[in-house]
Specification:
Blueprint: H1 4-24, H2 31-43, E1 47-50, H3 57-66, E2 68-69, E3 79-83, H4 90-94, E4 95-100, E5 105-110, E6 117-121, H5 128-140, E7 142-145, E8 148-151, E9 157-162, H6 175-178, E10 183-186, H7 192-210, E11 216-217, H8 218-229, H9 235-250, E12 254-256, H10 260-276, H11 284-295, E13 300-301, H12 304-325
Parallel strand pairs: 1-9, 1-10, 2-11, 3-6, 6-9
Antiparallel strand pairs: 4-5, 7-8, 12-13
Helix pairs in contact: 1-2, 2-10, 8-10, 9-10, 9-12, 10-11, 11-12
């Protein structure tokens, strides 16, 4: 006989798989990347996607928003897309006070940050001042306007993109902001077979985007975030995360290692990833699967060779330790 917790697990698993299936109606051949985006959503964090133009990063963000219903039946969650440019100002994100001529007073007009899902397109093209305006919303789920602090929605998820080419006129993201992204992923091109299918069905794929089912509500996402926070983490898995994080600070090829905050983000992502995979407990394979996505963008390497090998050597050593323990 199934317990109440088993029923909840089954429902969570089904809901997540239905969400991923809906996204795959539009985004083809990117199961791993989709799982990582959903992982960050359920972990209560934010994600940075880097890749060449035209690989589907923007469409993925819009697709996720289309699959989640808002407060009222039939409505979508509030989705905003901001194209970051060098002339963008903080008030373009936060909002500004405008004068209401009828009431003879200044009223605050909310900017695009007051939403549920934000697509920050080409985030590295904006100035550091604009990037810092986004930083508060990502870190503290709030915005400060003058002497007033305004809370954002409980469901606030930022998907930021940046292109690895055309780096002229861009502002590299500071380490403090990179650390706020739970994961950084590379979207990449699809394989030849999938690309041919996309070319054959591009009209149907475009129709799918406008006809997606609202699989989950905003409250469902919040409930899944709660479920993810209750996924079981073995003490040795926690120790494994600690060992990896600390090892990044001591490795000879890494000049800036991972912070304690990154270790906390790592644990949250492990719990959410296990839930995405249909489990209520984290296993060693989860650690291996997402370590690079969680840690790589937070590290500063001394050389190119170190970037290629340092983190792998740290992770593999810890995975070998865990494998000998036979936890599961």
């Amino acid at each position: 006989m199934e317990s109440a917790s088993d029923v909840k697990t089954i429902n969570s698993t089904e809901a997540i798989q239905q969400l991923i299936a809906q996204i795959e109606k539009v985004i083809r051949g990117k199961r791993g990347q989709i799982e990582r985006v959903v992982t960050c959503l359920l972990a209560g964090g934010h994600i940075l996607m880097e890749d060449n133009p035209g690989t589907g990063k923007t469409v993925l963000a819009r697709t996720i928003a289309q699959c989640i219903s808002g407060r009222m039946a039939g409505e979508h969650v509030v989705f905003k897309r901001v194209q970051f440019t060098p002339d963008l100002l903080p008030m373009d994100l936060i909002g500004t006070h405008i004068f209401d001529d009828r009431n003879k007073e200044f009223v605050f007009k909310h900017g695009p940050l007051f939403c549920n899902i934000l697509l920050a397109d080409e985030i590295n093209r904006a100035s550091p001042k604009v990037q810092s305006a986004l930083l508060e919303s990502m870190a503290e789920n709030q915005i400060t306007v003058g002497d007033t602090t305004l809370k954002l929605e409980k469901l606030f998820f930022t998907i930021a993109t940046q292109n690895p080419i055309e780096m002229e006129g861009t502002y590299p993201l500071p380490a403090a902001q990179l650390d706020r992204f739970y994961m950084k992923i590379y979207f990449g091109y699809v394989d030849e077979t999938t690309e041919l299918d996309i070319y054959r069905e591009y009209a149907n794929i475009a129709n799918n985007l406008t006809n997606l089912e609202q699989i989950l509500s905003m409250q469902d996402i919040l409930n899944l975030q709660d479920a993810a926070s209750n996924v079981f983490l073995h003490e040795e898995i926690i120790r494994g995360v600690s060992n990896i994080v600390r090892a990044t600070r001591e490795h000879q090829d890494i000049s800036l290692g991972a912070s304690t905050r990154s270790g906390i983000s790592f644990l949250k992502c492990l719990r959410a990833y296990a839930l995405v995979k249909g489990r209520t407990f984290v296993i060693e394979d989860d650690l291996k699967d997402i370590s690079h996505s969680v840690l790589d963008h937070r590290l500063i390497y001394r050389n190119k060779e170190g970037k290629l090998k340092a983190l792998d050597s740290i992770i593999n050593k810890e995975i070998e330790r865990l494998a000998k323990l036979k936890l599961f």
